[in-house]
DNA sequence: GTGCGTATGTTGGTCTCGTG
DNA sequence: CACGAGACCAACATACGCAC
């Protein structure tokens, strides 16, 4: 590219429009999402509540960032609808010299991780997990500055592709929801008219106590809420087990995290989970092969009906900690259609899962498109000197 | 085993104090 | 005395473990 590098200080000027806080006033407020995902409205600041005595007004088209989160891309252009909104002193704001730089071009430039990283190099803050970025760091960052016409062309191109990506993304989301809805419909058909039987008969509790060897290590298994499956916790050395009882988990177990079962902490132990252990908070149930399949039951506990039953079997009100009662689980009634119908449904689940994997891959490709274009446009050709 | 309180981790934010 | 940077705080999610 036949352009020269220009420091942002030639194009941006740090501005500040301080307003003394009036305790009788309220001040509309904005925040900036990390990863350059734009601004968001925050609840207005109440002049009587806040301890700040100065707030700063921002104007549309200004370039703004969060000093605390610049390292992870909290940069934005103030949109039309946020004109005149207030921010604290943690949000440096700049006027853009629009005769030479399109705000939208700057927006696209700051979509790039590379740029965040380069601007934040040497950022202040050692002991703290965060690193503030000083406005001088931003102003001294040097960018390629093509002509306004060229900037227009680049912005137009990126905006066009971004719109397509958005379209694609929402199409994927729609397909995802549709699959889920179809699956639920199919499930309801599968259980239509099926008898209800207690868990104790359908998938009795199977506990496999572990003898603790002080020299051994015990890899623990966790179950995420909201049906998000299992996860691996670090190994627990035998000496650290203390008096906690551990139970072995086998692939194919239906595992309940009893504290969070009511919000969907139910999963099927996968082959890679086999042999891991869980505390007494993790219940493992094994379906009787001729009666029920584990995936069928897991699905039931992800439906509104199944979750409601888990909720009813989980008393307690210590915040989100609601322990699923053991006896209550054993007597919990689940629908048990003929095993053939369950297998039919499980095949549908497998198909749906495959479709979801394919969509996830497509989604990944789609999401990679913009970063690839940014790379090509902003650092194709000449390397920074 | 159960129910419940509490510890710990994560994230997004403001406060305040030492210092040049 | 303004400002920068760590201290501190709030809200929430997750995990632990005591006492009955």
From TrEMBL:
Keyword Cell wall biogenesis/degradation listed: no
A single GO molecular function term of this UniProt record: DNA binding
Domain of life: Bacteria
Cited SUPFAM superfamilies: DNA methylase specificity domain
Gene3D superfamilies to which the protein is assigned, alphabetical: DNA methylase specificity domains
Protein's GO biological process: DNA restriction-modification system
Keywords: DNA-binding, Restriction system
PANTHER family: TYPE I RESTRICTION ENZYME MJAVIII SPECIFICITY SUBUNIT, TYPE-1 RESTRICTION ENZYME ECOKI SPECIFICITY PROTEIN
Name of the featured protein: Restriction endonuclease subunit S
């Amino acid at each position: 590219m036949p352009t020269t590098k220009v420091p942002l200080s030639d194009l941006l000027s740090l501005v500040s429009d301080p307003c003394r806080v009036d305790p009788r006033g309220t001040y509309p407020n904005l925040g900036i999402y990390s990863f350059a995902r734009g601004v968001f409205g925050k609840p207005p600041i109440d002049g009587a509540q806040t301890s700040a005595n100065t707030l700063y007004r921002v104007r549309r088209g200004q370039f703004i960032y969060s000093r605390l989160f610049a390292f992870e891309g909290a940069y934005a252009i103030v949109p039309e609808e946020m004109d005149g909104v207030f921010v604290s002193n943690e949000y440096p704001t700049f006027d853009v010299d629009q005769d030479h730089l399109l705000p939208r071009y700057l927006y696209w430039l700051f979509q790039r991780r590379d740029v965040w990283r380069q601007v934040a190099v040497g950022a202040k803050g050692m002991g703290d997990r965060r690193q503030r970025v000083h406005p001088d760091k931003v102003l001294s960052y040097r960018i390629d500055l093509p002509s306004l016409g060229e900037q227009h062309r680049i912005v137009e191109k990126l905006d066009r592709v971004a719109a397509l990506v958005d379209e694609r993304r929402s199409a994927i989301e729609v397909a995802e929801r549709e699959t889920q809805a179809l699956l639920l419909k199919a499930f309801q058909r599968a259980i239509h008219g099926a008898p209800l039987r207690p868990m104790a008969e359908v998938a009795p509790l199977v506990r496999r106590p572990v003898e603790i060897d002080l020299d051994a290590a015990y890899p623990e298994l966790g179950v995420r809420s909201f049906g998000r499956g299992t996860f691996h916790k670090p190994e627990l050395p035998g000496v650290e087990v203390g008096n906690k009882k551990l139970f072995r988990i086998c692939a194919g177990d239906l595992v309940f995290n009893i504290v969070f079962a009511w919000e969907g902490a139910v999963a099927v132990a996968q082959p890679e989970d086999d042999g891991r252990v869980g505390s007494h908070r993790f219940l493992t149930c094994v379906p009787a092969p001729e009666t029920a399949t584990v995936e069928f039951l897991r699905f039931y506990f992800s439906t509104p009906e199944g979750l409601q039953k888990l909720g009813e079997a989980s008393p307690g009100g210590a915040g989100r900690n609601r322990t699923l009662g053991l006896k209550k689980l054993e007597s919990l009634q689940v629908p048990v259609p003929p095993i053939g119908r369950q297998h039919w449904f499980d095949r549908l689940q497998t198909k749906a899962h495959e479709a979801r994997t394919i969509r996830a891959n497509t989604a990944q490709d789609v999401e990679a498109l913009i970063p690839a274009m940014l790379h090509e446009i902003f650092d194709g050709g000449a390397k920074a000197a």
